[in-house]
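Example 3.2
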Amino acid sequence: MAEVNNTNGEAKPEDFRAEENAFSNISHVVAVMSGKGGVGKSLVTASLANSMAVQGHSVGILDADITGPSIPKMYGMHGSAQSDGNGIYPFVADNGIEVMSTNLLLPNEEDPVIWRGPVIAGVVKQFWTDVIWGQVDYMFVDMPPGTGDVPLTVFQSLPVEGIVIVTSPQDLVRMVVMKAVKMAEMMNVPIIGIVENYSYMECPHCGEKLYPFGESHIDEIAAELKIPVLGKIPVRPEIAKAADAGDFAGVTADYVDDAAVAIAKM
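Structure, written as tokens:
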């Protein structure tokens, strides 16, 4: 972060944070990120949002995965967001969660977003400055995979209080987690914990745990990094079915209850 001089001639960090919309009052911002794609980051984001909404909190999801948005489809949202002189109005899911995503701004939600990095980063900031979120207790930012322009923009422009790292029990998991951890440390953002997706599946007949993606090593990695494991999400066909059908608002996300408790204690 760049430095500027104050009136006493002392160097202090320059603040790049963007002002939220005048009609927004957002209390807490949590980013959900991963060091690679395909680990179910949007599933974890939506699950955390559902869990907090069930507890009676007002919740928003800022879909910062500009070129690969999936949150609107999970909640069955289609069409274009409305706007007026005050800003853009987010869509509202059946369970009251507010959502803003590029898919809600495109004439055709299946059109690809072919924009360069600075434009994408600018859109993410506009989702903060131009969207009328109203009163939101917890804002979850669904990040794109990796550690590029958008995560940098989010960490510099939004008042992120902590991040949840999403991973899966596959090879190179330590390297993937380390990328996210090191970026969080460089940006001075606290790590709330790790959620592992695709951890296991239960045999429908005997209840035995099966490990289609290999046995997890996340506990050892988390212990090494001194980061808590907040949840291990099983493979449940009904969850994927609800997301594909646009019915995710009805999913009871008990598998992230511990993560929701940790977020509430931030």
